[in-house]
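Example S7 (C-alpha cells).
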C-alpha cells in the first residue's frame, strides 16, 4: 500500500507531526470497479480537492492510502485504516457491516437518448433498440425488459453516433463518461435521462458503528459544500457530472 499524507492548515502546507493524528483513508485510484473510460485522473483530482477543502475548513487531516480494489474492504476489516472511499452500494447486507456517508459523486449508469426524444425511462422504450458497452455490466439493466432490443458496442462514440443517426433509440452508459460526451461532443444531439438507473456513488465507508466522529464530520462538510455550491464548483472544475 502506498501512503500519501494530505495535510493543509489554513493556506499553507504544514507538518502533520505537530497536529492531531490524521484519519487514514484508503482508495483504489484506478477505480477498477467503475467504467470511467479514461476519466480516472479527473475523478482523483476532484477527490483530492474535496479532501483538501475539508481539511482547510474543519482542520482535520487525512492520510491517503493507495490500495488495490480487491483488498480495500479486507484491510478495512483488519482495521489497517479508518475508512475507504468506494462505490460499494448501500444494500442491506452491506449496511449490516459498514456505515456510509452521503453521496460524494454519482457513478451509476444512465440512459442516453436523442435530445428530441420524449423518453423518460427504460419503461418507455418497448420495442426500441438500446445500446450498451460490452464488458461493463450495463446489459443487466436491459435484461429486465424482454421487449427491448439489446445492441452491444465496443466503442462509446460508435454507440452514441448510432443514436444520432437513428440506428438506435438509446444507450446505457456510466454517468461520468456519459457526462463527458453529452456535455461536449454531443451537446446539441443527445441528453442524459435522470435519475441514474442505479444508486451507485462514491461514498466514505467505515466499519459499522466505528469512527462515527469521522463520518459525522465528513457528512457535515459535504452538506456545507452543497449549500455554498463548493461541491458543484469542484465537479465543474474537473468536468464531472453535477
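Recovered sequence:
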Amino acid at each position: 500500500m502506498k501512503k500519501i499524507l494530505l495535510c493543509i492548515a489554513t493556506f499553507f502546507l504544514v507538518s502533520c507531526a505537530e497536529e492531531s493524528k490524521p484519519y487514514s483513508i484508503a482508495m483504489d485510484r484506478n477505480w477498477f470497479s467503475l467504467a470511467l473510460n479514461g476519466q480516472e485522473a479527473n475523478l482523483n483530482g476532484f477527490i483530492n480537492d474535496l479532501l483538501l477543502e475539508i481539511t482547510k475548513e474543519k482542520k482535520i487531516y487525512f492520510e491517503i492510502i493507495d490500495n488495490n480494489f480487491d483488498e480495500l474492504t479486507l484491510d478495512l476489516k483488519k482495521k489497517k485504516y479508518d475508512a475507504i472511499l468506494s462505490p460499494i452500494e448501500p444494500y442491506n447486507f452491506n449496511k449490516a457491516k459498514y456505515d456510509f456517508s452521503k453521496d460524494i459523486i454519482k457513478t451509476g449508469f444512465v440512459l442516453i437518448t436523442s435530445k428530441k426524444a420524449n423518453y423518460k425511462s427504460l419503461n418507455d422504450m418497448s420495442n426500441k433498440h438500446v445500446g450498451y458497452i460490452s464488458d461493463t455490466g450495463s446489459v443487466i439493466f436491459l435484461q429486465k425488459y424482454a421487449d427491448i432490443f439489446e445492441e452491444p458496442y465496443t466503442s462509446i462514440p460508435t454507440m452514441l453516433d448510432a443514436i444520432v443517426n437513428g440506428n438506435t433509440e438509446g444507450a446505457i452508459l456510466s454517468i461520468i463518461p456519459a457526462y463527458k460526451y453529452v456535455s461536449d461532443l454531443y451537446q446539441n444531439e443527445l441528453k442524459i435521462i435522470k435519475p441514474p438507473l442505479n444508486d451507485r456513488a462514491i461514498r466514505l465507508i467505515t466499519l459499522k458503528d466505528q469512527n462515527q466522529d469521522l463520518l459525522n464530520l465528513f457528512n457535515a462538510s459535504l452538506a456545507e459544500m452543497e449549500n455554498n455550491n463548493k461541491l458543484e464548483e469542484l465537479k465543474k472544475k474537473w468536468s464531472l457530472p453535477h
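Notes on this example. The first helix runs from residue 40 to 58.
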